[in-house]
Structures are given as C-alpha cells and as structure tokens.
C-alpha cells in the first residue's frame, strides 16, 4: 500500500505542478472569477482527495461487498403512488404528452421563424431535453423509457395497424453488430452538436430530427422494437448507461421470462433487472419499480461487449471535447491549423472540429487500453487487454456524469430560462399564449463562483464513486483482495489524471 501511495502522490504533484498558476475562470461564464487559491492548489487537493478515497475504500470495502444484497423499496407497493405509477391512464397521459411535445418541437422548427433565440426548437432540444434528460436520468431514473416519442409513436402505429407483437420481426438482428449502430448514431449526434454550424437553426434541426426518426422507426420495423431500442437507438442506450447510476430500477421477479427475451438480459442475479422487454411482458405481481442506493447498478455483473465499452468511452470523450473546444487552447489549435484546413476545401473550422471529434475519442480509447494493460500486468490475470477494458468500463460512467454536470450546469440554469418566454411564443410569431413572452433572463440566478464550486464538487465526488465502482468490480473479478488492490493502482492514476484535466478545462474562460 505504501508504494502505491508514493506513486500516487508523485503522479498528483507532477500533474498539478505541470500547470502554471493563473487566475481561473468558471467555465461557462465570460466574466472572470479569481479563485481564493491558485488553480494548482485545487488540482492537488482534488487529486489527493480521490487518492485518499482509494485508500479508505481499499481498507474498508472487502469481498463481502460483492455479495451484498442492496436494500430496495418497491414504489409500486407504496400507498397512492403505486397505483398511480401502475395505472394505464397515467401511462397513456405521459405518452400523449411526450408525443405532443415532440410534434410541437418538429412543427415550430419547420414552420416557425428561423432565428434560434426566437424559436422553441433549439432551446428545447439542446438545453431542456439534451442537458436536462441526462441529469434527470442519472439522478432520478430512466424516464426516457416512458417518454421516448419514437417508441410511443411506433407502439401506436402497431395498434392502429393491428400488428401481432408475438410474431418474430422481419429480420433477425445480427449479433455481431451489437450496439455499434447506436454508437455510430451517437457520434453523428455529437458531430451535429459540436461541429455542424446549422445545428442551432430550427429548420435544419427539424430536418435532422425527421431523418433520425425515419432511421429509428425503420430499425424497429425491421428488427423489432426492443431489439432496435437496445442496440440501435442511441439515446436509449446512452440514457441506459446513465440510469445505472440512478437510484431507481425496474425488476422482474419471474426469471422464466428471460428465456424468451429477444434482447438477452444477462444480469447474474435471481431476478431480471432493467430489462424493459421482460418488464413489459411481466404480469403486475412480478413487476417492481425499486428505489435503490446510487451507483449500485454500475456494479451488477453484466456481460459487456466491445461495442458497449467503446460507446461508454465515446460518451466520455465527446462531452470532454465539448468543453475543451470552448477554451483558448482549442482556439490556438484552430488558428495553427486553419491554413492547412482551408487547402482541403469547405469550412475550415468544421474540418478542424471534425478531425478533433474523431481524434479525441481515439485518444481516450488508446489511453484507456493502456491503463487496462497496466491493470492486467499488475493483477497477473490471463484475460486479454480488451477483456479487462470491457470489465471496468462502467466505472467510467460516474466520471462522464460528473463532467456533464460541471460543464452544462450554467447553460441549463441561465440559458434554460429561455424556455419561459418561448412556451408563450414557440413559433416566434409574437404570441403571448401563457403571458410569459416578456420574461427576461435572470443572469444572477447563478454566478461563476457557485458554478466553480459545484463543478469541483461534482468532479471529485464523481471520481470517488468511480474508484468505488472499479474496486467492487475488481473484487469480483480478481482471485483475492491483494490482487484486486494491485489491479486498481493504474485505474487510480487514470482517475487522478482525469480529475486534474477536467478541473483545468472548466477553469478556462469560454472564448467560443
């Protein structure tokens, strides 16, 4: 243990001292907020906290934790709440609302004014839905499942056309594809968000939504609803990752349903957890909607494919790139490469952004494989490097969630206020349906100092949770406690490094 602490301390100090002490900015604000101590001190303190958590977890969390049956409370059995959540009327109302909002967003994009600030579509899609849904899914539960408008509309169409759901789909989903289609679609979504200059234009955004809708409905029609949602619908897969951190789960106590489950639920527990096909088919007495401790869903023993591991790394890399491209460092990169990009034709900034969005996930993947190799060497396991990377990949999810919170918190609180006037005038036609069209943004709703401390707290806590999740996984996978601890030295170094990197990014001023 003492050797590990020495190595960790050296890594923390080397990383922190490699950065010059400068006045820091809370990322997301143009105004400067001078930190009470140099940024280096924050980096050292944050890294040391993560390292200390490793020591505490290593000392007090033993192998018995992998066999611990975590406490659960079935919300479907709670007073008035249970009957409401189980009610078909409630479910139908939620579905109607979700599809109505989807149709409204599509309509205002197609027929409303094409100015982003005066049209409901960009604010709702990029701030309320994209940012807000990630927060709610991680902190509450997978509400995307009952709100997914593509799924709901497809189910309605099946009922109207009187399609027999018991019949096999037209095509069998190729197992070798796994979640690669969802990963590809998510990459295209990330490119649209971070690179495509037309993403904020309401009409262009609606066209993109129509294209994605066509792909999603075609995939469900070809391979079956649950198969495509589980493997091809990017947001179902992504929010499913986030929901593993959340304090709620769906559970089916009739395990016999899993034998006929087309999406092959594979949790090694007596019950079936978070398989929505089994949950949909189960009778009321075998359904549970449970409260549970945060993050335990990330520690459940599941088979993780290479495609799933790649998707998790891609999600972490793209949100990091989103933050990095707003820093002066990225602007300097653009300025240095712009002449070369111009010679290739097209918009040079889009070209540079596309290359960056490709290279950053590749870099993250190489770094993660490198640390996975180190885990393999220290643990003395016969598993391949890719196998190790797959086993530990869900320990990265809390890091992605923490950085997501740190990066987007000011955007949600400040620019998210635009939804208040826009709900009264969604098309930009000078309406005032709800009397809120004259609302003006409160720029004092949150300040740079508060954002900075929220960001630091989120990142440090996220990395500590990642240390815990990785430790639980290692205890389950390694033959003894000593091997489990050794295997986590590289993972600790990775998390300390990323803690420092994340804090450095959010400390930079936004220049884009």
Describe it for me?
The chain is mainly alpha-helical. The chain folds into two domains: 2-69 and 301-506, no CATH class; 73-247, no CATH class. The protein is 62% helix and 3% strand. The protein contains 20 helices and four strands. The protein has a four-stranded antiparallel beta sheet. Helix 8 packs parallel to helix 13. The protein is globular, with a radius of gyration of 24 Å. The two termini are 45 Å apart.
Helical content (DSSP H or I, runs of 4+): 55-70%
Major sheet: order of its strands?
Answer: 1-4-2-3
The structural class is mainly alpha
- Bin the strand percentage: under 5%
| Count of strand segments | 4
Largest sheet: 4 strands, antiparallel
**What is the distance, rounded to the nearest whole angstrom, between the alpha carbons of the first and last residues?**
45 Å
Task: Describe this structure in a few short sentences.
The chain is an all-alpha fold and 512 residues long. The chain contains 20 helices and four strands.
Structure keywords:
single chain; 2 domains; disordered N terminus; 512 residues; mainly alpha; 20 helices
Please describe the topology of this protein.
Blueprint: H1 2-17, H2 39-60, E1 73-74, H3 81-86, H4 88-111, H5 120-139, H6 144-147, H7 149-161, H8 180-194, H9 202-223, H10 225-231, H11 234-243, E2 248-252, E3 272-273, H12 276-281, E4 287-291, H13 306-324, H14 328-343, H15 348-379, H16 385-392, H17 397-414, H18 419-422, H19 448-477, H20 481-506
Antiparallel strand pairs: 1-4, 2-3, 2-4
Helix pairs in contact: 1-2, 1-20, 2-19, 2-20, 4-5, 4-7, 4-9, 5-11, 5-17, 8-11, 8-13, 9-10, 13-15, 13-17, 14-15, 15-16, 15-20, 17-19, 19-20
């Amino acid at each position: 243990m003492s050797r590990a602490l020495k190595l960790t301390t050296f890594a923390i100090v080397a990383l922190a001292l490699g950065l010059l002490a400068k006045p820091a900015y809370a990322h997301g604000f143009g105004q400067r907020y001078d930190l009470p101590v140099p940024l280096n001190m924050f980096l050292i303190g944050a890294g040391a906290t993560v390292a200390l958590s490793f020591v505490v977890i290593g000392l007090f969390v033993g192998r018995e934790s992998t066999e611990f049956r975590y406490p659960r409370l079935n919300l479907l059995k709670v007073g008035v709440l249970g009957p409401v959540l189980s009610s078909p009327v409630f479910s139908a109302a939620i579905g109607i609302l979700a599809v109505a909002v989807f149709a409204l967003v599509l309509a205002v994009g197609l027929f409303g004014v094409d100015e982003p600030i005066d049209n409901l579509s960009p604010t709702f899609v990029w701030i309320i839905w994209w940012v807000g849904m990630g927060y709610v899914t991680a902190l509450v539960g997978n509400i995307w499942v009952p709100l997914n408008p593509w799924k709901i509309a497809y189910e309605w169409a099946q009922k109207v056309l009187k399609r027999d759901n018991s019949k096999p789909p037209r095509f069998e989903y190729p197992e070798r594809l796994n979640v690669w289609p969802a990963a590809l679609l998510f990459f295209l979504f990330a490119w649209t968000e971070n690179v495509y200059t037309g993403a904020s234009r309401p009409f262009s955004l609606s066209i993109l939504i129509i294209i994605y809708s066509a792909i999603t409905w075609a995939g469900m029609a070809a391979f079956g609803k649950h198969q495509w949602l589980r493997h091809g619908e990017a947001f179902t897969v992504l929010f499913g990752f986030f929901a593993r951190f959340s304090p709620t789960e769906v559970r089916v106590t009739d395990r016999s349903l899993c034998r006929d489950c087309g999406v092959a639920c594979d949790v090694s527990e007596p019950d079936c957890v978070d398989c929505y096909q089994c949950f949909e088919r189960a009778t009321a007495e075998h359904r549970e909607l449970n409260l549970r401790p945060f993050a335990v869903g990330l520690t459940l023993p599941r088979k993780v494919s290479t495609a799933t591991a790649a998707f998790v790394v891609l999600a972490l890399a793209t949100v990091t790139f989103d933050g990095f491209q707003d820093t002066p460092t990225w602007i300097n990169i653009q300025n240095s490469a712009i002449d070369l990009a111009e010679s290739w034709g097209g918009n040079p900034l889009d070209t540079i952004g596309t290359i960056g969005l490709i290279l950053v996930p590749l870099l993250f993947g190489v770094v993660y494989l490198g640390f996975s190799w180190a885990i393999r060497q220290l643990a003395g396991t016969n598993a391949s490097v890719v196998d190790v990377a797959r086993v530990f990949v869900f320990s990265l999810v809390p890091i992605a969630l923490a950085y997501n919170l740190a990066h987007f918190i000011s955007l949600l609180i400040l620019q998210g206020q635009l939804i208040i006037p826009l709900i009264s005038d969604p098309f930009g036609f000078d309406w005032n349906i709800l009397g809120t069209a004259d609302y003006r943004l409160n720029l004092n709703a949150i300040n740079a100092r508060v954002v900075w401390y929220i960001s630091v707290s989120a990142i440090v806590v996220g990395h500590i949770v990642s240390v815990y999740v990785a430790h639980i996984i290692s205890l389950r996978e390694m033959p003894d406690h000593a091997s489990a601890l050794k295997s986590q030295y590289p993972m600790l170094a990775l998390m300390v490094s990323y803690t420092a990197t994340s804090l450095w990014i959010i400390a930079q001023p936004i220049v884009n």
